Amino acid sequence: MHAIDENGLVCVDLDDFTEISDSIRLRHKIDELMEQCSCPEEIPNFSVSIIFKSGKRFYISNLYYWAIAYRTQGYQRADIDHAIDIYDGKEYFIQDKIPRDETQLAILEVMRSRYKLYTAFAMVRQCYECDVIIEAYQNMPVQNHDEYYSRNYQNFEKFIIAFLDQMIPELTDTLTEYAHLDFFKDKKFRASVISNRQNKILPVLTPRELQCLYLVSQGANPKSIAEQLFLSPDTVTTHIKAIRKKLKCNTITQAVIIAIKNDLFKNTKYPFLGIH
C-alpha cells in the first residue's frame, strides 16, 4: 500500500520503482514528449499497449503511480480491455461499457478514488504485425464518452504518432526481438497504422504456400503435407520458412492465426485437396 498525502493523493518515490515498470524508467522522456509532441489538453493521461502476434504485450504510459499498484498489488485482474474479443475489428471502444465482475469493479473504484484516473476511451489500431490499444484517461468522470472521442481522436493520433517516433530508440532497445518489424522500422507505416489509414494488404503468399499453411491449420505435419501435395518434406519446410518470414512470425501457428484473421484462405483454391 502506498503512502497518501494530506490531499488524499498517492505519495511515493518513483526512483524506487524503476525496475518494475518501463514507464517509470522512461518517465522523464515521456513527460518531455507530452509537451513537445502536444498531447491534447483534454487528455492529461494516456497509455499505449502494443500486443504482438506472439502474444507478448508491451505497455507504456504516464500513469506512473498506477503502474506501481498494477505491478505490485495484483490490479492486472481488472485489465480485461486488452482481450482480443473486446477490441478486435473496432476503431475504438468505451472501457466503462465493458461488463465487469465485483473484483474488477472494486479495482476500478481504487483507480478512480485513490489515483484520480477515469477511463475516457480506447483507440484500436491493428496491422499484420501487432495490435495497438491507445487509451485516454481523465482526472474526472467523462460525461459523454463518444462525443469526447470524436472531439479528441485526431489530435490524439497526431500526438501518439509523434510520441512513438521519438521513443523508437528506447522501444527497440527494450524490445530487441521485435526491432525488425515494419512497425518500428518504417515511420510512414507506423503513422498509417496509428492514423488508421494503412494499406492492410499482407505480403503475398504463393498458392503453394497458402496450400501448406491451410493444411497446417488443419493439423497436418510437414510429412503429411508433403504426401498430400506430392512434394518432398524439404520443399514443405522451405515453404513454411518462407511463410514465417513473409508474415514476420516466430512460429507457424502465429502465421495460421494471421491467415484466419485476414481471411487468407477464403478465396484460395486447393486443387489437390478439392477445397474451394
UniProtKB/TrEMBL annotation:
Keyword Transcription regulation among record annotations: yes
Organism: Legionella geestiana
InterPro entries referenced in this protein's UniProt entry, alphabetically: Sig_transdc_resp-reg_C-effctor, Tscrpt_reg_LuxR_C, WH-like_DNA-bd_sf
GO molecular function: DNA binding
Domain of life: Bacteria
SUPFAM superfamilies linked: C-terminal effector domain of the bipartite response regulators
Protein name: Lipolytic enzyme / transcription regulator protein
Keywords carried by this UniProt record: DNA-binding, Transcription, Transcription regulation
Database matches in Pfam families: GerE (PF00196)
GO BP, one annotated term: regulation of DNA-templated transcription
